[in-house]
Specification:
The protein is an alpha+beta fold. The chain is built from 13 helices and 27 strands. The protein is globular.
């Protein structure tokens, strides 16, 4: 999938002893989006924007050692050993040893002569890494200007970590004119080094440069054209993370010192064997406890008490990604943790006074957001006609951000319809759920509409579920709603000689909160990789029956 960007120059930071100007160059092909203000909270912003950079360059995928040279050497030694064994005469053996010693000397001399060349090659690549790391950034960060805040979004290289930095207008003073919208900003690696120079004694001007949108055609304007061919996984991951944020979760607060203690364990110990998980032990009214496996080392968070109604035990993996939060500990008031369940994604929201930093982690590092999450399949899926969808989105655009309840009340629509429409726009990249303020926001990920059929429905299970409905092999055996408003469904699917018995629970927000199936795929994966095709088919069949009624 190819994305085209055009920047009027480059983002830059300039200044003198008492003043710093930080100007981001936006994409001029998109609707005018600009902002200008002077930073009031310099240190907190510096640490937060640096943590966002840590998300972008993060890549914890396993990198196997290159054993090519060793295998070549081992093959040579193996051939030589067989020759020695096959040699019957001592004179031939002695001659082979002489030749082997001579070859070893030649290889040593060759290595000495070429060592400077390889050192130069290494220095060259080190220079590129330090001075021109633009290739490490998959896509320039997305920045959105809203009536109440400015926020950045980015993904890690391994597509398993999501970062969002939100800065309310209280972070700035002398805020000038601004235009709400979403754009990509030119964000080179050199800017990171400049961010480290932000100080409290120097006034810092933050600017999404509006000048790029007022340039007349004169033939002399220099634009930086950027074309990036992105894999579908990157875009799908961006959509999946927003679907995951809207799902129900177990939430609690952690004191910054408790986060420090968790990071300290990860810094001081290195596991060699599994399991490599963190197990949260949550009991109402008691301090949060975290057990690190495989050492069974327990950290008691004496400053953080769980306020939930029932005890929980939730295990999460890919824990070393939490080290991204280290820079935020000195400037954070608290960290709010949102856990979707064992083996499912987790979110850590740092409260930095008037800034907020959200770190979204997939179930584990190798299980990135795009390949095995499919959280859009678990999101609200109420059937909503196109006219209602457009009405809901137009209503959201009026204020740029709003809670589902307030939007449903203002538009005089059923809450489930509003959630279904917002979910569809979230999965289309046109809206985002703000986990910090619990509201939906308008956020156009791209200028051109995304190919939703290619991104959202590129899932074999959903395709198979649709095929079951077409063949009319799906039957809803029972449906009931309990006192809490949760819908319980049970169904039967007969495919040739096989019979499957899926059951599922859907809450009042049309979200899949629990499910089970007798098929082998579900028994092996549960909901860690999303629902199976049989669970999806029963849900779709039930929704179609409501439409017919």
């Amino acid at each position: 999938m190819e994305f085209n960007y055009s920047y009027s120059g480059n983002s830059r930071i300039s200044g003198n002893g008492d003043r710093t100007n930080m100007s981001f160059a936006p994409d001029v092909t998109r609707s005018p989006t600009y902002f200008r203000g002077e930073l009031r909270q310099n240190i907190a912003f510096r640490e937060a924007i640096s943590a966002l950079h840590d998300v972008v360059v993060s890549d914890l995928r396993f990198q196997p050692k290159d054993k090519t040279a060793y295998k070549e050497w081992a093959a040579q030694r193996n051939d030589l050993d067989w020759q020695l064994i096959a040699t019957q005469r001592q004179s031939v053996t002695d001659r082979l040893r002489e030749l082997d010693a001579e070859m070893s000397d030649l290889r040593r001399r060759s290595s000495e002569r070429t060592s400077e060349y390889y050192k130069s090659v290494r220095r060259y690549f080190d220079y590129l890494y330090q001075k021109d790391r633009d290739a490490w950034f998959v896509l320039d960060p997305v920045i959105t200007v809203h009536p109440d805040e400015v926020f950045f979004e980015c993904f890690s290289q391994d597509e398993s970590s999501y970062g969002r930095l939100g800065a309310s207008y209280e972070v700035f003073k002398n805020v000038g004119d601004f235009a709400c919208g979403t754009t990509n900003v030119d964000y080179s690696a050199a800017l990171y080094d400049e961010f480290q120079k932000i100080r409290t004694y120097k006034s810092t001007i933050f600017e999404v440069d509006p000048s790029g949108f007022g340039v007349e055609t004169a033939g002399e304007a220099a634009y930086k054209e950027v074309k990036i061919d992105l894999p579908d996984t990157w875009v799908r991951g961006f959509l999946q993370v927003n679907s995951a944020m809207s799902l129900p979760a177990v939430s609690f607060d952690l004191h910054p010192m408790d986060i420090y203690n968790l990071c300290l364990v990860l810094r001081r110990r290195k596991e060699k064997n599994g399991p490599r998980s963190m197990k949260y032990i949550l009991k109402p009214g008691e301090p949060v406890r975290v057990i690190f496996e495989p050492w069974n080392l327990e950290v008691v968070c004496d400053r953080s008490f769980y306020q939930g109604n029932k005890p929980e035990e939730i295990r999460v993996w890919g824990r070393r990604r939490l080290l991204i939060l280290e820079r935020l500990i000195p400037v954070a008031r608290k960290f709010t943790v949102h856990l979707l369940g064992t083996g499912l994604p987790s979110f850590y929201v740092a409260d930095l006074h008037d800034l907020s930093f959200t770190l979204g982690l997939s179930g584990w590092t190798a299980n990135d957001w795009a390949k095995a999450g499919n959280f859009d399949l678990m999101a609200p899926r109420a059937t909503v006609d196109d006219w209602t969808k457009q009405k809901v989105f137009a209503g959201l655009q009026e204020n740029w951000l709003e809670s589902p309840d307030a939007l449903a009340k203002r538009l005089k629509l059923d809450r489930s319809l509003v959630l279904g429409a917002l979910s569809a726009y979230t999965q289309a990249g046109r809206a985002i759920f703000d986990l910090n303020k619990q509201v939906y926001r308008v956020r156009e990920l791209t200028q051109e509409p995304l190919p939703i059929d290619r991104l959202r429905f590129a899932n074999d299970r959903e395709s198979a579920a649709t095929g079951f409905l077409t063949k009319k092999v799906v039957k809803v055996d029972s449906s009931s709603i309990d006192t809490g408003g949760t819908l319980h469904l049970a169904g039967t699917i007969k495919i040739q000689s096989q019979t499957y018995k899926p059951t599922l629970e859907i809450d009042r927000d049309e979200r899949l909160i629990a499910a089970n199936c007798t098929c082998n795929w579900h028994q092996q994966n549960k909901l860690f990789k999303g629902p199976c095709e049989h669970i999806l088919a029963v849900r779709m069949q039930y929704q179609q029956s409501l439409v017919r009624l």
